[in-house]
Amino acid sequence: MGHMPYIKVENNHLVVPNKVTIGYIEGDGIGPDITTAMIDVVNSAIEIAYEGDRSIEWEKIEAGEEAYEKNGKHLPEESLDQLSRCVISIKGPLTTPIGKGFRSLNVTLRQHFDLYANVRPVKYFPGVPSPVKNPENMNMIVFRENTEDLYAGIEWKYDSEEAKKVRNFLSTQFGVNLTDDTGIGIKPISKFKSQRIVRKALEYAIDNKRRSVTLVHKGNIMKYTEGAFKDWGYAVASEMFGDITVTEDEYTQNPDAFSGKIIVKDRIADNMFQQILTRTAEYDVIATTNLNGDYLSDALAAQVGGLGIAPGANIGDIYAIFEAVHGTAPKYAGMDIANPTSLILSSAMMLNHMGWKEAATSLENAVTKCYAEQKVTQDLARILNIKPLKCSEFTMEIVKNMKKN
Ligand code: NAD
Questions:
Q1: Ligand 1: does its nearest atom lie under 6 Å from the Cβ of 382?
Q2: What residues pair up with 268 in beta bridges, in sequence order?
Q3: For the chain, which has fewer Cβ within 10 Å, the N-terminal or C-terminal residue?
């Protein structure tokens, strides 16, 4: 247990002491390599920004294969207690064991702590190889609903008793006839959960002076789930933030009257996948349902260098877990060659979330400088046809860059 105090929550606000205990899960595969890198970089960023006035004590939380070997459980009760005490934690990737009835640890964590917003900022770092012509136009942040939609796990195999009952119910009650070989999945989308994710996206846009929030949905086809998400999203914008937002329609009719307001617009998901390629610069903050968000955030990351550098976080009203968005890359485990950028940029999101913005900025600038100078790990060096740095060497470069500023 940490000796420094934990973050407190008062009236739904975080109170972050200057000397604070933060939880971390190393993760499986390359997890330990990239976690060591992340901790080194964060400690340096804090030391340089606050010269000893602030610091983090890192509390190790066991989960995944390491926990299973010791306790026979991938996510022991004690680890959940620690995550709860720490309020804010950061995690490396965890293996999802393949086996019947095993729920992904990530999904379990999201549900246990009601981390309803999956937040994925995507922007370009000059020097990173990209498959598009103008990757510098990309600067978006996705707020993906994390708890409902087709991910709620309400589904039945085609030949199960449950599927049979549901098919029977649909047939007798609604005259909807499905053949016996039909599996069933349910897509729940609620007003409360739609509005709280859109609210989070709008709050972010306001706090960070962003230009627009786009609601991405497939409401033309799924009217009462995806379409409702869009309608509830517009409603929350006008009811809670009416004085600082304007709809795209209103804005287009009279741009001068609404200058400085955040534009709220919506796009149908399939069109959005074109727009992110053809009109990249026109999109900013995105709020969307779970499945759309899953596809969209990986497609966005691919435009600017892929999952190895894209950070992410799962955030609720109180708790937050910051994470590398990629998996455990088992073939690189323990070889000191993985790219730690995803987890390092997630730690910058964490510092921002804690209000330690100076440290976050110096960390991001140091990463930017590495890429600008083409100092990269093997995943990107291979594409650029240059000599790669090891994970630990790349980490030292980031720390060196911070010290120079
Ligand atoms: P993966 O992200 O581990 O790997 C995909 C590809 O990207 C591989 O070629 C890998 O070598 C490479 N890669 C990923 N991260 C890298 C990095 N930081 N540096 C260099 N190369 C990197 O995805 P996968 O292979 O589908 O999954 C492997 C395991 O990870 C599975 O058990 C899966 O369940 C788990 N997983 C966990 C999370 C998470 O904890 N958030 C997310 C995705 C997958």
A1: no
A2: 217
A3: N
